Amino acid sequence: MRVTGMAQWEAWQARTEPPVEEVRPGLWSIPVPIPDNPLRYTLCHLLTGSTGLVVVDPGWDSDAGWRALEEGLKSAAVTPADVTGIVVTHVHPDHHGLTARLRDASGAWVAMHPAERDSLPARAWRAAPDTDADGVWLAEAGVPAGVAAELGWKAGIVALLMGMPEPDVLLEDGDAVPLPGRRLTAVWTPGHTPGHLCLYEQDEDVLLTGDHVLPRISPNISLHPNSPAPPLGTYLASLERTASYDSAEALPAHEYRFHGLASRTGALRAHHEDRLAEILAVIGALGPTTAWQVTERLTWSRGWDSIQDTLRRSALGETLAHLVLLVERGQLAPQHPGSGSPVLYTLAGPG
Ligand SMILES: [Zn+2]
Questions:
Q1: Which residues contact 23 (CB under 8 A, 6 or more apart)?
Q2: What confidence tens digit (pLDDT) does each residue in 47-97 have?
Q3: Looking at residue 133, what is its pLDDT?
Q4: In angstroms, what is the span from residue 281 Cα to ligand 1's centroid?
């Protein structure tokens, strides 16, 4: 892997924000700040066509973010009113947060993958039949009752998630983004989210990778109460597919741009295989174990004690995604004592 975005890389090291850059003719990278978040910014991308102007991943909804987006557009000699389309790689608030504000300022269409639309909290959560699905999910993962309250969603974030806009345009795998003068196609890369999209710009040979592949960190691959399918096996398959874009420069939504998608996706796959082996070792040593007990014993880069509140929920979701894959692979056997009781995992016996 070779870093190509040196200004972005230097800013990352210096803990500052990178500059707005014209990465290719008419393809701009605009850092939009994420308040109080170690990722610091989302790299929003702007693409001009022969007619029209598409913004990919507008970023987190804040006044500072909006100003950064406006400034970035100004560097490209355009304004929010000129935007004709908005594509989101996925609906997390650091990508989809500013979409409503930008759409209202421009009248632009909003596009995403159909599976991503279905995962919008306003759809997925309202469709959930049981109001305490979350409580049951936490209990079955073995989260102690005293801890479960800390892992619940906070009201502020729920309101924010529920207000995120629906798409006007659906992009399936291989579909062209409606931007005349550009050959920009959707590449469906489920895993980080069910409908995550990368976007391939054929003439410039660049792949906008969203959060699917980042140069330094491994994106969170989590099982949630509303997950439509176990995400880790899907993610590993998406990584394998992305390796075939090795000639392309990767333009991720965080950190910095780089070359070497085959080696980076290989490293991410190896990271997950290491994690799967670590989980088998923990369960081998402990005997029948809940997801929560496994989570507490795994190595976390920041240390388990420094992971708090909803970050513990992400860690638990990540462990569950790995446990489910090990069950699918026949290496673990789950024991389900009944709804609301902790599921225990043991090593699957031979045969
Ligand atoms: Zn992100």
A1: 5, 29, 45, 206, 251, 257
A2: 999 999 999 999 999 999 999 999 999 999 999 999 999 999 999 999 999
A3: 77
A4: 31
- The alpha carbon of 289 and the centre of ligand 1 are apart by a number of angstroms equal to 32
Q: How far apart are CA 215 and CA 261, in angstroms?
A: 9
> Which pTM value belongs to this model?
0.94
Sheet holding 85-87, edge to edge: 21-24, 27-33, 41-48, 53-56, 85-87, 109-112, 169-170
Ligand 1 centroid, distance to 339 Cα (angstroms): 33
Ligand 1 mean position, distance from CA 344 (Å): 32
pLDDT band at 283 (very low <50, low <70, confident <90, very high): very high
| Rounded distance from Cα 6 to ligand 1 centre (Å) | 20
Question: Ligand 1: distance of its center to the CA of 211 in Å?
Answer: 5
Q: Burial letters for 94-107: b for 16+ Cβ neighbours within 10 Å, e otherwise?
A: bbbbbbbbbbebbe
From ligand 1's centre to the CA of 91, what distance in Å?
Answer: 9
